[in-house]
Recover the amino acids of this structure.
């Protein structure tokens, strides 16, 4: 049986990072971008990290340029942007694709374990993103792949994917789910 710990990924500084190094931690794995309408979520992700790191939360960010080319810079540019603008000190990984045939294996695993269940269209941002993707990229709505930047996956201490949160879910709204696993 495959688990999140079976994967490794390249860090933003080019080192190979086995995800097994995070065994026993609660993980929040996020695909990110620096020039997205959801980019301000970095701020609340950093707040969550500071608040819960001591209790075993790790946030792993995977920048991607697949959605509107909203992560155009090099890995060093991404790292600098995150540190300067949001004080990010949680682990950042190298830019990679998170959907389609070229998707990072971590995200192929995550989307298989936690399929897309739709956007909350009662919220303005959910309605907007649902409409945009349905009109501009309708084929993206037909599978379980990542739909946009800042899709978040919550993984328990045993490495099981517990829940998927779409881009429109604010990080602070995930606190009850995170606390339940800590």
């Amino acid at each position: 049986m495959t688990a999140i710990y079976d994967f490794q990924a390249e860090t933003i500084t080019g080192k190979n990072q086995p995800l097994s190094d995070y065994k026993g931690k609660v993980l929040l794995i996020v695909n990110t971008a620096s020039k997205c309408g959801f980019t301000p979520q970095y701020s609340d992700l950093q707040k969550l990290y500071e608040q819960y790191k001591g209790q075993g939360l790790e946030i792993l960010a995977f920048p991607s340029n697949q959605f509107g080319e909203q992560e155009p810079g090099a890995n060093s540019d991404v790292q600098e942007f995150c540190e300067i603008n949001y004080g990010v000190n949680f682990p950042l990984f190298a830019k990679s694709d998170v959907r389609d045939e070229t998707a990072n294996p971590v995200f192929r695993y995550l989307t298989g374990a936690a399929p897309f269940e739709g956007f909350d269209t009662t919220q303005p941002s959910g309605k907007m993103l649902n409409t945009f993707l349905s009109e501009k990229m309708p084929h993206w709505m037909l599978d379980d792949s990542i739909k946009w930047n800042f899709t978040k996956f919550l993984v328990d201490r045993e490495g099981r994917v517990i829940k998927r949160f779409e881009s429109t879910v604010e990080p602070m709204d995930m606190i009850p789910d995170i606390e339940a696993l800590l």
